[in-house]
Design brief:
The chain has helices spanning 2-8, 34-42, 44-51, 59-114, 119-145, 148-152, 165-172, 191-212, 216-255, 311-328, 351-370, 380-384; strands spanning 15-16, 22-23, 32-33, 262-266, 274-275, 281-283, 287-291, 294-301, 334-339, 343-348. With 402 residues, it is of the alpha+beta class. The chain has two domains: 2-70 and 260-391, Alpha-Beta Complex (Lambda Exonuclease, Chain A), CATH 3.90.320; 78-255, no CATH class. The longest helix has 56 residues, at 59-114. The protein starts with a helix and ends in an 18-residue tail after the last helix. The model is unreliable at 156-164 and 173-187 (pLDDT under 50). The structure holds iron/sulfur cluster (SF4). Iron/sulfur cluster is lined by residues 43, 45-46, 375, 382-383, 386, 388-389, 392, 394-396.
Length: 402
């Protein structure tokens, strides 16, 4: 009886605000999480018990946690494989450029030695290259020292996108590789500096070789050997990229990730918390994927695959859709609700769904303040499969003669 009356009692103090959301004494909207919405829509008593410290129990709950962890691990491994693929392809293309340069050097030395190119002209070109390398080196140092990115308002690590999409991606995607060594205003190392330094080194090596190589036959031979060695090294990077690509495909197949687009983030428990201060809504989607310019929330559900998405699950994904919209200012057209690794439902996001979501949030805030949470259905079968049935004062029992 005591537990039952506790579960009917108010949770917080607050008043209804002018926009329909309930606020505390400081005027801040009462907080409601996306997972609380899922529980409330399933059954208000389930939500109230969860807030009151009654944990969900049963094998299904354990399986759900394991499946979430497994899926998170799979997404992390896929993102790591994608990073490895990109890294190795970049290295391979750079090294392949080195091979081409060495091949050109081999030809140049050969023609100089053969008398087709004048030796003095080759020395002059060599000196010019050394001078050019010096200019590039100075340019790279200047770029390293000056905060030119800030002056230009340019951040090369972000994918250009309107309305804060890039900010969200940058915050949500800690696994992404960056080339940045320093976050301060001064001395920031990035791709342009690396490219210029690389060119300066390459130019200076060529210049020195053309200017000072006395025995050009030997030089031709050495450069040729170097080109072959570098070709072999470049091949190892290509192999590593191909093996990363194979891992990406394996993870896609294993986790049914192909149709989810480019997953940008997966919640491993330490991800950024999305919040909307106006409604008080907050939460972390299981995953966020990118399709075109849109960031799409993905919610994973385990257990029996339903013929159509459960209402409570739909509302949870609506909550994430609203959170992404309020964070980025750009409404995603839909969200994904996944059951297992094979069934994916697309949940539309529009004005009507927004009103429905707000209505549930306001109702939850009202019940939090006024109390009186109670079961909202007459289905014993629902109670039978409820993970909080053990302690529930409102539980319905299936009649014995059925
Ligand atoms: S046992 Fe029934 S009444 Fe109680 S929380 Fe679960 S579904 Fe609601």
């Amino acid at each position: 009886m005591g537990a039952s009356s506790d579960l009917r009692s108010p949770l917080k103090e607050g008043t209804e605000g002018p926009n329909g959301f309930w606020v505390d004494s400081e005027g801040k909207a009462l907080k409601i999480s996306a997972s609380d919405i899922e529980r409330y829509v399933y059954c208000p008593m389930s939500w109230r018990m969860s807030v009151g410290g009654y944990s969900a129990q049963g094998d299904e709950v354990k399986r759900g946690i394991e499946e979430h962890n497994r899926m998170h691990q799979m997404v992390v491994e896929k993102i790591e494989a994608q990073n490895a693929f990109t890294r190795n392809i970049v290295i391979w293309s750079w090294w392949f450029a080195v091979v081409l340069t060495l091949a050109a050097d081999t030809a140049a030395f050969y023609f100089v030695q053969d008398g087709l190119i004048d030796s003095q002209l080759a020395t002059m070109i060599g000196k010019f290259l050394v001078l050019l390398a010096l200019v590039w080196l100075i340019l790279a140092i200047v770029l390293l020292i000056l905060p030119w990115r800030q002056w230009l308002g340019w951040n090369e690590e972000l994918i250009p996108a309107p309305n804060g999409l890039a900010d969200l991606e940058n915050n949500l995607h800690p696994l992404e590789n960056t080339w940045k060594l320093g976050e301060g205003e001064w001395f920031t190392f990035g791709r342009p500096e690396a490219l210029i330094l690389f060119c300066a080194i390459a130019l200076s090596l060529h210049g020195v070789a053309l200017t000072f190589a006395q025995n050009r036959s030997l030089a031709t031979f050495l450069v040729l050997v170097l080109a072959l060695i570098w070709t072999m090294l470049a091949t190892t990077r290509l192999q590593a990229a191909l093996s990363a690509d194979k891992r990406i495909k394996e993870k896609d197949k294993e986790g049914g990730l192909e149709e989810l687009g480019d997953i940008r983030y997966s919640d491993g428990g330490d991800a950024i918390l999305l919040e909307d201060v106006i409604s008080g809504l907050r939460g972390r989607p299981d995953q966020i994927t990118r399709i075109g310019d849109d960031l799409i929330p993905v919610e994973l559900k385990t257990g029996k695959v339903p013929k159509k998405p459960h209402k409570s699950h739909r509302f949870q994904i609506l909550a994430y859709l609203h959170l992404i919209e309020s964070f980025t200012g750009s409404p995603p057209p839909f969200g994904f609700l996944r059951y297992g690794s094979e069934t994916v439902y697309s949940i539309e996001w529009n004005q009507n769904e927004r009103y429905r979501l707000f209505s549930v949030i306001q109702d939850m805030q009202r019940v939090s303040v006024e109390g009186g949470a109670k079961r909202d259905h007459e289905r014993p079968g629902k109670c039978e499969s409820c993970s909080r049935r053990q302690d529930c004062p409102d539980r319905l029992f299936i009649p014995v003669d059925q």
